[in-house]
Amino acid sequence: MLENLLMNRRSTRKFTDKKVEAEKIQAIVKGALTSPSGNNLKPSEIIVVENSETLIRLGDARGKASKLIGGAPLAFVVIGDTKKSTTWLSDTAIMATIIQLLAEEQGLKSCWVHVENRVADNGSNVEENIKGILDIPSHYTPHCIIAIGYPAEDKRPYTEKDLDYTRVHRERF
Questions:
Q1: φ, ψ dihedrals at 102, nearest 5°
Q2: pLDDT averaged over the chain?
Q3: pTM for the predicted model, two decimal places
Q4: Which of 93, 135, 91 has the alpha carbon at shortest distance from 112?
Q5: Residue 59 within a domain
Q6: What's the CATH number where 132 sits?
Q7: Is residue 171 domain-resident?
Q8: Is pLDDT above 90 for 113?
Q9: What is the DSSP letter of 138?
Q10: What DSSP designation does 36 have?
């Protein structure tokens, strides 16, 4: 079952206008909150965004690489509390991955948009842009935005031929 999710999950950058149902959003939220974290400190938090104007603003925050967010009906902004834990970056990445898998399980598609340590096309700091749009306190850092929705494009699942086993090392590099 998990293997099927992993093989079918592909980054989707084009979404239909269909709104994501509240029960699907809640299922993703519930699962995301179970994400593991270093010393169980739970520094990862999410901001669920459905407002189309806010989605467009988030899509403009980085430039070309983030425009797809404005075309999605839903986005999860994954942020880390930098005061709570030194492992916030790893912990937010884990939560974001779980969000993508949960979206896939709900029959949705997603795309991860990098925010942390990124410079926008206009030279501005993407983290600061996102903080300003969403009123995020200074001790939190936005790690990524997961755009989610029903796909407007079909992508084939991964096959065994797509897997690069030269990336796997046994016992030593």
A1: -65, -40
A2: 97
A3: 0.96
A4: 93
A5: yes
A6: 3.40.109.10
A7: no
A8: yes
A9: T
A10: -
Distances (CA, A) of 147 to 41, 115, 135: 26, 12, 19
Per the structure, how many domains does the chain have?
A: 1
78: which strand partners?
46, 144
Strand order in the sheet with 74-81: 44-49, 74-81, 140-149, 109-114
Q: How confident is the model at residue 110 (pLDDT cuts 50, 70, 90)?
A: very high
Distance CA 132, CA 61 (A): 10
- pLDDT tens per residue, range 60-107: 999 999 999 999 999 999 999 999 999 999 999 999 999 999 999 999
Domain of residue 116 covers 18-156
**pLDDT reading at 144 higher than 90:** yes
Beta-strand relationship, 109-114 and 140-149: antiparallel
